Amino acid sequence: MKNLVLALSACALFSCQDPVNNTVIITGTITEPLDETASISSKDYRTSYTDSLDSEATFEIEFELDAPSYMNFIHGKESTAMYVRPGDSIRVNINPSEFDETIKYKGSKASSFLAAKYLLEDNLDLRELYSLEEPDFLTAVDQASAQMNGLLDSIGECAFKTEQKRVISLQWASKKLSYKKYYTNLGNGEIELSVNYFKFMEDIDINDPSFLEDNNSYNFLKTYVSSNVSTDFDHELLSNFDFIARTFNNQTTKDKIAYDLLKDFIKNEVLEDGDVIMEAYKSLQSDSIKYNELNDLRIEMATFNTGRPAFDFTYPNVNGDSISLSDFVGSLVYVDVWATWCGPCKREIPHLLELEKEYHGKNIIFLSVSVDEEKDYDTWKNMLVEKEMGGVQLFASGWSKIAKDYKINGIPRFMLFDSNGNIINVRAPRPSNDGIRPLIDQHL
């Protein structure tokens, strides 16, 4: 990591002056388009530039850009990262049916790198990786890291190249930090790491203030904290807060990591011993406004604690009949909130079908609710047939009541309700997770 700082200095020394021409032109052709437009947006999606496809499914987007930026190419519900410089003229070719596999850039080696790097990440079998024994795991990590760095060899943009080397370094350092936890969680038993396993951390300055300035570096810090949980504490958050207090020098860093870890936990887990945890957070956090915000969120999310009444919902099935969650009082109900455009949702389907088959004839209902928009109704119906999906299938016409009531901001979301119509877990394990069967068996 220290070498990366020197490389960045070299970039500044030998880089050319900023180009006078700030106009960016991005053209392209879309094979078998999903809709009538193509767009380029800023990284945060706040600014976008759009063109309608012509009769040959081509587009041309022109805009002014003051500095090199990460941006997004968007078509339909799909998007992919780009790196764009003032004065760039880039051509894009893509087939949305295999979006990331087919996208090609001419005039932007950096964007081509981002596309290739994404495919490497997407094709990585994390379950297989984390199930390897330590020597094989480290070898696989080093090989994957070297492969990604090798993709950078042809890149001329010095600052981009240096930044991506740092991203890759922290990305694989995060996987090394997570290895022991995932190895155990995947059912491989306990593992004792070698004496020098964490030597890679010696080259990383965790108190570098720049780590708070970009998501990749900051996510590494959160992983670092989460991977150092001590059994000396009754709750992992208490361990997190103690580690943060002992490890980081900067109060801003302490505040931000503690806030985000606690907020994520409150939104995604049942917070037991809430008073004790909030008191520990209060002693670490310097911002009373943040404390009050999370305490209010804790009280609000208690609505979803185990044993609380479920929020009912009613949606049509494939035949147009209205079906409600409350219709199944008397049985366990395992709910899958999904959409046809959601890749992680579709990857869960084979596991869900296997789960349904395993529990066939038992007192449990498998209920899937699609949040596809009305215009995608036929796509939904066709996928039910194509994937041979069983259970009860409902169509919610977008992010409607179920999403609002259960505060669903991302999918897939799985929920389990008991035979009395009460909540067991509104963030239940996915069908692919080994934890779902014991949870169902416990309540049958």
Question: Overview of this structure, please?
Answer:
This protein is 43% helix and 18% strand. It is α+β, with helices and mostly antiparallel strands. The chain folds into four domains: 2-121, Immunoglobulin-like (Sandwich), CATH 2.60.40.1120; 124-204, no CATH class; 227-305, no CATH class; 314-443, Glutaredoxin (3-Layer(aba) Sandwich), CATH 3.40.30. The chain has a five-stranded mixed β-sheet with strand order 13-12-11-14-15, with helices on one face. Helix 5 (134-151) packs antiparallel against helix 6 (158-188), helix 8 (236-247) packs antiparallel against helix 9 and helix 8 (236-247) runs parallel beside helix 10 (274-284). The protein is globular, with a radius of gyration of 24 Å. Mean pLDDT is 91; it is low at 2-10 and 12-19.
Quaternary state of the chains = single chain
Strand runs, count: 15
Looking at the overall shape, the CATH architecture of the largest domain is: 3-Layer(aba) Sandwich
Q: Say what the CATH topology of the largest domain is.
A: Glutaredoxin
CATH superfamily of the largest domain: Glutaredoxin
Number of folding domains?
Answer: 4
Beta-strand percentage range: 15-25%
Question: Percent of residues in helical segments?
Answer: 40-55%
